[in-house]
Write a structure and sequence with these properties.
The protein has 506 residues and is an alpha/beta fold. It has 24 helices and 16 strands. Strand 12 and strand 13 form a beta hairpin.
């Protein structure tokens, strides 16, 4: 009987994978549901004996079983150029294993990292993670080993491991793919972190928009409970507020409070969940740890660029031909990702802008395509790599409208704790609206009254409005309590800097 492998990843399901699987079953084939390779433009991707076809519909099933449908055949999946160009550490099992099958996981090196961690002990675990150069993959890029060392050395008998799985950036899906495709790897990473700092309990905080990831993680936690014991894990579901991706808001939400940012210090590593020392790392950070422990810090540290060591699962999305998950060592250029890997725009029109780092990331023009994918290189170009999501736009995009969207997003998602974010985003929308209308700000009737002697007696022209927008962005950047308000100026100012014509300026 023919065995057919089809992903049960949420994206594959959205593209019709269940209907294709049902059609193969009806035709007499055995169907195995596996994780996604990450070649999203080919989903539903069907694999028979290592040979792939995609995207496949139910009407293609019989032709594939008959050995035909050459037009959709991509040859050996593992040898596809999109896969061959990658360095897959975190996603080494992607497309190859059944997500909830413990035998598949153990047969592909699963639990090797945890076994090693238990052999060498807490201090050596922290030293290994530190030596690997692993930095937080959630956006901040803070060294993971230093955070773990701080928690390990903090006073207090009870400590926690919290996985930030509140993946909310536009164009990002790597966290979801890990949880849906390789959930035991994340559990193993959290168990290793628990060994390192002496934690007995951990939480995976997932937004409610990820029902498939929630179900997979809950099932995987139950299946592996004896393996990671005495460490205990629990999934907590968030309502989907963007600001709950910020670690202190997330901790408040976990405690059943309003998802509001906490002022720092104290750092969560000292006073985190329920006031106890807490490791808060995102999915990709924790998922990288089993490979590092199993293979050694040097193997991880020798890959990368500058101070950015190891690999980064980069998510390519937007108006692009070949969207998907591409894991590679830091240092690949933005132009390679967009043009060589992504294949340029799906519309066939010229690329005008690429947003890197989610809704708060800067927009980059093609003249920035030389930039190496690296924390410091993007910071020097007034950008950030964030969670490594890149969204491609062609030349029909209105960058002033995109700048307004950034302010609108911040206004909608602000927790309201600090004034620069709560009010600045609303005022930012108003200023951009006036700039786009070209009218500038006119005086209100009350402002013209002679007794209002402290009010300016003339309105602002568009140029003065742009200067006001710049000043407002500076206030938000340096005055906001967390990254939501502090990073919103990045998309706004980059749009204004590189495409002033869209704002009516020259």
């Amino acid at each position: 009987m023919t065995t057919v492998r089809i992903s049960d990843d949420a994206l594959a399901l959205a593209c019709g994978a269940d209907a294709v699987a049902a059609a193969f079953t009806a035709a007499g084939a055995t169907v195995e549901r596996v994780s996604s390779w990450g070649m999203h433009w080919l989903e539903p991707l069907v694999e028979v004996g290592g040979i792939g076809w995609g995207p496949v519909g139910p009407g293609d099933v019989q032709a594939i079983l008959d050995g035909g449908l050459d037009a959709k055949c991509i040859g050996p999946v593992a040898a596809h150029p999109f896969i061959m160009r990658q360095q897959r550490f975190t996603f080494a099992r992607a497309g190859k294993t059944r997500p909830l099958n413990l035998d598949d996981y153990a047969a592909t090196g699963g639990w090797d990292g945890l076994r090693k961690a238990r052999e060498i002990g807490p201090e050596a675990i922290v030293e290994t993670v530190t030596a690997s150069g692993l930095r937080g993959r959630g956006g901040a890029g803070f060294p993971a080993g230093i955070k773990w060392k701080t928690v390990a050395g903090a006073a207090g008998g009870e400590k926690y491991i919290v996985c930030n799985a509140d993946e909310g950036d536009s164009g990002t899906f790597a966290d979801r793919m890990v949880m849906e495709g390789d959930p035991f790897m994340l559990i193993e990473g959290m168990a290793i972190a628990a060994e390192a700092v002496g934690a007995q309990r951990g939480y995976v905080y997932i937004r409610s928009e990820y029902p498939h990831a929630i179900a997979k993680m809950q099932a995987a936690i139950a299946a592996s409970a004896e393996i990671v014991a005495p460490f205990e894990l629990e999934v907590r579901v968030g309502a989907g507020a963007y600001v709950c991706g910020e670690e202190t808001s997330l901790l408040n939400s976990l405690e059943g409070k309003r998802g509001e940012v906490r002022a720092k210090p104290p750092l969560p590593a000292i006073e985190g969940l329920f006031g106890k020392p807490t490791v808060v790392n995102n999915v990709l950070t924790l998922a990288a740890v089993p490979w590092i422990l199993a293979n050694g810090a040097d193997g991880y540290a020798e890959v990368g660029f500058g101070r950015s060591r190891g690999t980064m699962p980069i998510q390519i999305a937007g108006n692009v031909k070949h969207g998907g998950l591409f894991e590679v060592g830091f240092g690949i250029t933005l132009g390679e990702l967009v043009n060589d890997i992504g294949g340029g725009t799906a519309s066939g029109r010229p690329v005008r802008a690429v947003q890197v780092g989610g809704p708060l990331g800067a927009y980059h023009p093609p003249s920035d395509f030389h930039l190496p994918f690296d924390y410091e290189a993007f910071a020097a170009a007034d950008g950030l790599i964030g969670h490594a999501g890149i969204v491609v736009f062609d030349d029909t995009v209105d960058m002033a409208a995109q700048a307004r969207f950034a302010m609108e997003f911040c206004a909608a998602e602000s927790c309201g704790k600090c004034t620069p974010c709560r009010l600045g985003a609303v005022r930012g929308m108003e200023v951009i609206d006036r700039i786009r209308s070209g009218a500038g700000r006119q005086l209100e009737t009350i402002e013209r009254m002679p007794q209002m002697h402290n009010m300016p007696k003339q309105g602002r022209d568009p140029a003065e409005e742009i200067a006001l927008l710049t000043d407002l962005c500076e206030t938000m950047k340096f005055g906001s309590l967390c990254a939501l308000g502090g990073f919103t100026p990045y998309p706004v100012m980059s749009a204004l800097k590189h495409w002033p014509e869209d704002f009516g300026a020259t």
